[in-house]
Amino acid sequence: MRYVEEFRDPTAAKSLLAEIEKVTNQIGATKDKPVHIMEICGGHTHAIFRYGLDRLTPEGIEFIHGPGCPVCVLPMSRVDECVQIAEKPNVIFTTFGDAMRVPGTKKSLLQAKADGADIRMVYSPLDALELARRNPDKEVVFFGLGFETTTPSTALSIQQAARDGLTNFSVFCNHITVPEPIKALLDDPYMMLDGFVGPGHVSMVIGVHPYDFIARDYNKPIVVAGFEPLDLLQSVLMVLIQIRDGRAEVENQYARIVPEHGNPISIAAMEDVYERRPSFEWRGLGEIDASGLKIRDRYKAFDAEEKFGIGYAAGPRVVQEPEGCECGAVMTGRMKPTACPQFGKGCTPEMPLGALMVSSEGACAAYWQYGGRRAAEPAE
Asked: Is residue 339 a part of any domain in this protein?
């Protein structure tokens, strides 16, 4: 705890905030002409609101909440396919908890469980492997979901299943990658982005060099950041200093955790098990080239899409968003959650329309949990 408290020190925070205000003024950023900084990771979004950093930083800084929540960017069609697999006879479908309540077009996994499907929450794909060992007469499917942070654990589990000969274990692979959607956002002529706070946990796996293109090709600064309030304040200051100095570089504020070249064991496991899909659909962003991962043919016995003839194995399927749901606009920074006409009305944590309200990293959940709900309530 002492180590954590060092990154929550109020005196240090005041010093950083003073420097941030100074550099913001030097840039000439104001409320009417702000610097737009996108925090890519949903964990950063929640930290910003949890610690009130959006209110402590100057009005000349506007945080744009990026698509850094893998549950949030999952298209509804993939949720439907999860339900379809889970409702098959003799299937035990396993998933992380934050995916249970994400709505599909007809129902969520939690509703499918209530209807009788054998759906179980697990904390790791190794839990699903153990279920497969204990239930040889059942098909155990793990919902592989997440960015590069969780991708290695799924890969290692598939390798273990292959070594153990567990033919009743498979993965419904929805692992996706971070750099490709950033490029899609930067290619969007309507996006106004001046710099990025880069994801910490993803970078712990892949390192910092996959972001080189942001500085090299788009002349935008990016600083890989930790998750404590001082981490984020220092990272914002580093972005602002780059803008002030006319630089665009990849910097690593989270060097105590993030190695420059990532984790070689994790990278090797991912390269062995996965290959790139030609494209993958992202909720709110559409199809993005080479942004999704597919299980290689050498491990296709553990690919639920192949085993059940579902998903991209059966051809992609596009599903329209619920009427009035603005998840796509929120995830791409075009709209704040409170500007969505359904926020706090047709979409609440109890009755969500979109994943952003129920995911542990969703921007709408952050606004609701840390005070944004007031915007949905009538003014007194």
From this structure: no
Dmax over CA atoms of the chain, in Å, equals 67
Q: Say if 282 falls within a structural domain.
A: yes
Kindly state the tokens that stand for 10: 């109020």
3-state secondary structure 85-143: HHCCCCEEEEECHHHCCCCCCCCCHHHHHHCCCCEEECCCHHHHHHHHHHCCCCEEEEE
Q: What share of the chain is helix, strand, coil (3-state, %, to 5)?
A: 45, 20, 35
Distance, CA of 54 to CA of 64 (rounded, Å): 11
Helix (H, G, I), strand (E, B) or coil at 361: coil
Q: How far apart are CA 264 and CA 149, in angstroms?
A: 13
Q: Is residue 9 part of a domain?
A: yes
R_g over Cα of the chain: 21
Residues in the chain: 380
Distance (Å) of CA 369 to CA 41, 205, 221, 238, 358:
17, 29, 30, 28, 11
Burial of 224 (0-12, 13-18, 19+ CB in 10 A): buried
What's the number of domains the chain is made of? 1
Mean pLDDT (the chain, rounded): 91
Cα–Cα–Cα angle for 169, 174, 175, rounded to 5 degrees:
105
Residue located via tokens 């180590």:
3
Alpha helices, DSSP H only, in 248-351?
A: 264-273, 304-308, 327-331
Backbone region of residue 284 per phi and psi (left: phi > 0; alpha: psi in -120 to 50; beta: other values): left
d(CA 318, CA 77): 7
284: helix, strand or coil: coil
* Parallel, antiparallel or unpaired: strands 139-146 and 293-295: unpaired
Q: What is the pLDDT of residue 378?
A: 43
DSSP letter assigned to residue 320: P
Give residue 158's pLDDT. 98
**Global pTM?**
0.90
Per DSSP, the three-state class of 1 is coil
Let me know if residue 370 belongs to a domain: no
Whole-angstrom distance, CA of residue 6 vs CA of residue 10: 9
The CATH number that applies at residue 48 is: 3.40.50.11740
**Which DSSP helix (H) or strand (E) runs through 141?**
strand 139-146
Rounded-to-integer distance, Cα 249 and Cα 118, Å: 49
At 362 the pLDDT is: 86
